[in-house]
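yo

u said u wanted the structure for the complex thing, so here. seqs first:
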Amino acid sequence: MRDAATVAERLAGHLAATVTAMVAAAPAPVAPVYVSWGAAAEVATCPPRYRAAGEAGWRFPGWAPATAGAAAGRAALDHHLQATTPPAGPPPLPAPLEAVRSWMRSGTAVGAPGVAGWVAELRVRGDGTTMAATAATAARWLAGFVRLWGWPLPSRLALLNVPREGGAGGAPRWWPARRSPVSVASGADARLGRPGRTGDLSLVVHRPSSGGDRDVHRRAAYEAAAGALALRVAPEAVVVSGGDTGERVRVVVDDDLLAAGAEMIAAVVRARVTALTAGFDPGDARPSVLCRWCEEAGRCPAGAAWLAGPGRWHAGLPVLAAEG
Amino acid sequence: MARRPVPTLPHLLAELGATTVEGGGADHADEALAASVRLLEAAAREAATVGGWTADDPLRLAKGRVGWLARCPRRALAPTDGDLTDDLVAGLVVDAAAKLATLVPHRRPTVEAAVRYLEATGDTAVARHLADRADGGALQADVAGRVALLAGLWPELDAGWWPRVEEPVRMALAGGAVVVSGRLDLLLGGPPTPRPAVVVEVKGGRWHDSARADAHLYALLLARRDRRAPAAVVTVVADGTTQVEPVRPAVLATAADRVVHALEVAATIAAGEPAPAHPGPHCAHCSLRRGCPEAALAPTAGS
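structre next:
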C-alpha cells in the first residue's frame, strides 16, 4: 500500500525545486503568481494566449454572478448545514434558492473574506439585480451538487474552500518555499474521507457544466496535484460530478496523473517567466476554437492557419459564407 | 379515463404539487427512454463514422441546429452573426424578466430590471441596442407589454419546487463524438425532490410550432440526465399562449427520432455532400439567401 503522505512530499519536493529554479532564472523579479485551475487550464489550452493576457488577464477577474456561482453555492450549503443540522439525525433537504437567499441575508457581512464580503456589499448598495443573478448561479450549483451527491450528503463528505469568520476554511494552498512569489490553490469543492497516511481520501469537484472528457481529466489531474500539495496527502481519486450530464466520473490518482497535474502547475509559472522575456510569442501556439475570439489571432501564424482551415467548420459542420 | 387538459402553468403546478414521483410521476416513460437512448447511441456511432467526428472534435447539436437540420439543412450552416434584431432583443428581455419573476417573486419584473439582469450576467448588447434605437421608445413599449403579459401568466413558486433557471443538460453519444446539449429556461421539481420535474420554456414572440419540438428535445435530455422523464414541458409565450404538454413515451420517441434525422443529415454534410435548401418563410431572415438556389421559391410575406 502506498504512503499517501510520502507521495505528496515527493511531489512537493520535485515541484518546489522546479518552480524555484524557474523563478531564480527569471530576468526580472517575478510578481506574485497565483496558480489556480483557471490559470492552469488557460496555459494548457494555449500558452501564448495566456502570456499575452498580461497582469490584467492573469489576476482574478473579480466577483460577478458568473464567477461567484460555485463559491456562493458552497457557502450557502455550508450555511444551511450549520444552521439546520439537528443534534440527532440529518438536516432537512435544502431548497436551493431559499438556502442561497438565507445565506445572503444572514451569512454575509461587509468585510468578510471572499464571496461573502462581495455579496454583503451588493446588499448595502441595494443591487438586487446582481444579487438575483448570483442567486441563480449559486442555486444551480447547490441543486446539482445535492442531486449528484445525494441527501443527506455522504457522512464522510466535508466541504472545502468555504471561508469562515476568522479566515479559516479558504482554498487550501501550497507555497513552494518561504517568500516564494508562487502559490498554488486547490479548487476542490469537497473531500471524501480525511487526510491521512493511508490515502483514504478523495477530492470532489462539482461542475454545473462539465465540458468534454478531456476537460474532466485535465481538471482531475490539476486537482490531484494541487490537492496533494495543499493537503500534504495524495488523494486516491478525484471525483468530478457534472451537473449537466448527471454523471460522476471517478479518476484514480496514480503517479502519471500527479505528474500531469504538476506539469500543469509548472507550466503556469513557466508561462509567467517566459512572458517577462518573450511576451506573446506564437511559437508554441495550440490553435483551437478559442482562436475565433483571440485578440492575438492576427499575429499568430498557427492561429491564422487554423482559422483558414479547420476553423471554417463550427462544432462539426462547415460554415457557409454569406454572399454580399 | 383521460385526464382533463391543464391549460396554464399555475394550474399544472397546483395539480402536480400534490403528487410525488412514486405516486404519480412519469416512471412509465422509463422503457421509452431506454429505447430512445439505444436508438440515439446507434445512430450517433453510425453518423460519427460517416462524419468523422471524434471526442476531441465532436458534432455539437443544440435545439437550433437540430431544428434547422430538419427544416433547411443549408440554413443550419449559416454563420452566426452577432447582429441583434428587435425580435431577438424582445425575446432576451422577456426571458430575463421570467428569470427575475422566479428569483425575486415579490417584485413584478420590468423591462429596466430585466435589462439590468442581463447586464449583471455579462450581456450588455441588449442595453446598447435599446439605447441606440432612434425609435427606442416604441420598441421599449412593445417589450414592456410583453413583459407585463408574461408577468401575469407567471405562477408563485413555493420553495419545494426547487426553481432553477438556465439549467444545463447535456448528452454525450458515441464516446463523446456527438454532444447534444441545451439550457432550460426554468426547471422545477425532479430529483432529489419528491415532486415530478416540469420544464418551462419562455418565448418572447408569438407561438410557433417549432417551440414544441424544442421542448420535446429538452424533455429527452432531462430524462436522460435524471434517469427519469419530466412530467410535462410547458412553453409560456409572451403573446398570452401557454402550451402544456405531458411527457408521454411518444414524446421522448419523437424527440429521439428528430435527433436521429439531424444526425443523418449532418453526417452527409460533413462527408462532403451539399446541404439541401428547403425554402420557406425563414428565407426572409436567412443570411445565406443571396446565392441560395432555393430562396427565390420561398413564399413572400402575405402570399
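Chain A touches chain B through 46 residues (CB under 8 Å). Chain A has ten helices and ten strands.
cya
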